[in-house]
UniProtKB/TrEMBL annotation:
This is Substrate import-associated zinc metallohydrolase lipoprotein. SUPFAM superfamilies: Metalloproteases ('zincins'), catalytic domain. It comes from Ancylomarina salipaludis. InterPro entries: LP_HExxH_w_TonB (IPR030890). NCBIfam families: LP_HExxH_w_tonB.
């Protein structure tokens, strides 16, 4: 009986081989069905605008492999994705290309940008608006809140891109070690417990800057490049007068300042509302020291960008303002 089974198996094996050999040839079409994602005019524009010249992939449709599934986020609305990417090209890529050169932006631009409609809310009560991964990918959250008709709001929407791109650059070429020592001892994982005024007093541009020196570095870069109003034509402001030690005197003076210069001038100075509804200036006595530290950081950062990348951050700031105003005009006429 055993021999019969063996013979039968051999016959079936030969038949199977013969059957394969007699096949007229493999089918030209795939027998595996692949669902073709509908390519819209927007997708074609993304390919021609970002993929062809810069070798960038832009993802705005849902892909759960690109997000942390421990968080509840949603894809952006198409209208907002279109507005954001049009702005990204006009007020982020092109100004960098103009100031840093075509080769610079083609070499260091992130190769994958993934858009998310909502913020990523964290367990500690904070929310994530952007993530950079390995110098290759940047995820941008809260795209559905993008406003393409307001200069200040539009600029601040790109805080994430400037922040994450600064990470990419300093990971390629590190900034000077002296920067790391300017606020040594004041970095904290509990940065979210501090207000802006407290952070400024300690020499930080924002509370998040207090998390670690690399975040401190990129937050300053991002703030320079998003506080762009009146960069090219400073305007007269009425501000608190300061004495030679940087302490407010109680008097007011007029000064010609850009928005960023105004932000620096007012660092460490806040307003307190009194019981009668009036406002009083509030300044910690250590505020001038904090501003001095912050100005040292800015000097190191601007020199680093000029020396290592050939980029004048304040020239770039001015280019971004011009491009943003032009884009707002275009958008308002549509």
């Amino acid at each position: 009986m055993k021999n019969i089974y063996i013979k039968l198996i051999c016959i079936l094996s030969i038949f199977a081989l013969f059957s394969c050999d007699k096949e007229d040839g493999l089918r030209e079409e795939s027998i595996i069905y692949v669902d073709q994602v509908h390519e819209s005019e927007f997708d074609k524009w993304l390919y021609e605008t970002f993929t062809v010249p810069y070798n960038m992939e832009i993802k705005w449709k849902w892909d759960d492999g690109e997000v942390d599934n421990n968080f509840h986020v949603t894809p952006p609305r198409k209208e907002k994705a279109e507005q954001f990417m049009k702005a990204l090209y006009k007020i982020w890529i092109k100004p960098y290309e103009e100031v840093g050169g075509e080769e610079f932006i083609k070499t260091y631009v992130p190769k994958l940008i993934y858009l998310v409609g909502t913020p990523q809310f964290n367990d500690d009560g904070t929310m994530t608006l952007g993530l950079a991964e390995g110098g290759r990918k940047v995820s941008v959250f809260d795209v559905d809140s993008f406003d393409n008709l307001d200069l200040e709001k539009m600029s601040k929407s790109f805080h994430t891109m400037h922040h994450e791109f600064a990470h990419i650059l300093h990971q390629k070429i590190s900034y000077p070690t002296e920067y790391m020592n300017l606020s040594k001892g004041n970095y904290t994982g509990a940065w979210y417990n501090y207000g802006e005024l407290e952070a400024n007093t300690l020499g930080f541009i924002s509370p998040y800057s207090m998390s670690k020196h690399s975040e401190d570095f990129v937050e300053i870069v991002a703030t320079i490049l998003t506080t762009v109003q009146n960069s090219n034509t400073p305007i007269e402001r009425t501000v608190p007068e300061k004495n030679e030690y940087g302490i407010v005197t109680g008097n007011l003076v007029n000064m010609i300042l850009t928005d960023f210069q105004l932000k620096l001038y007012m660092c460490g100075i806040g307003l307190v509302q009194n019981k009668d509804g009036s406002l009083t200036l509030k300044q910690d006595q250590s505020g001038p020291r904090g501003l001095s530290i912050l100005l040292e950081k800015i000097d190191i950062i601007t020199e680093y960008y000029k020396t290592e990348w050939g980029i004048d951050l304040f020239e770039l700031q001015g280019k971004i303002e011009i491009a943003t105003n032009e884009l707002i005009l275009e958008n308002s006429e549509e």
